[in-house]
Amino acid sequence: MSDYLPGTYNWPSAVSGDQFPGFTNFAITVGGVAPAANLASVLIHFRRNDDDSTGTPVLALSTEDGTIVIEDAANWEFSIPAFDIELDPGTYYYDIRTVDALGARRTYVKGEWSIARAQTV
Prior knowledge:
Elements: E1 7-8, E2 14-15, E3 19-20, E4 23-27, E5 39-47, E6 59-62, E7 69-72, E8 77-80, E9 83-84, E10 90-100, E11 105-116
């Protein structure tokens, strides 16, 4: 039986109130190869507690609202446009939930994002 736990990628640390530059061509692969069915949607939820999967996320990014853009569905590449970091300082936990063209849901990536306090306000 294969291991179905997500891989870990920690986002680069950032400062509250700054603009996050985004990601271009973020690709998900398994063993160096994109999953077989095309990527259909992507959802990322950020939460303050690693074990909180029931409360409202403090930040949600999604292909539904355009805060995530699928660039190449066959190669599972997507981008996250730049956005203002409107989060309090602290550590945030996230995962990337994907849905493929066949409707299969899968969480391939999880990690942390450290937000520092701005010194100049």
